[in-house]
UniProtKB/TrEMBL annotation:
It is found in: Cell inner membrane. Residues 12-97 form the NAD(P) transhydrogenase alpha subunit C-terminal domain. GO terms for cellular component: plasma membrane. This is proton-translocating NAD(P)(+) transhydrogenase. The transhydrogenation between NADH and NADP is coupled to respiration and ATP hydrolysis and functions as a proton pump across the membrane.
Amino acid sequence: MFSWLSLHQEMIYIVILSVFLGIEVIGRVPSVLHTPLMSGANAIHGVVIIGAIIVMGKAESNNLLALTLGFLAVILGTLNVVGGFVVTDRMLEMFKKKK
């Protein structure tokens, strides 16, 4: 366990720093801009879905951890993309003229 941590120490630092950076960036965005930014996040989650599919395709059939995490990433990424499109559609409906 400790050898794995010391071997991947740089990657762990990058993930931790990116979490803190993401919290700082999102925390400073005004609430008016959150919905338009969600539309942009749909593209990012599309990349996550494609990456998860690639990981699942390259994983060996006996590597249950990679297959499970890939499947979970596909499901959660898809839910986030669909939810983002629903919210964006509702936002755009507000700007249409009512009859």
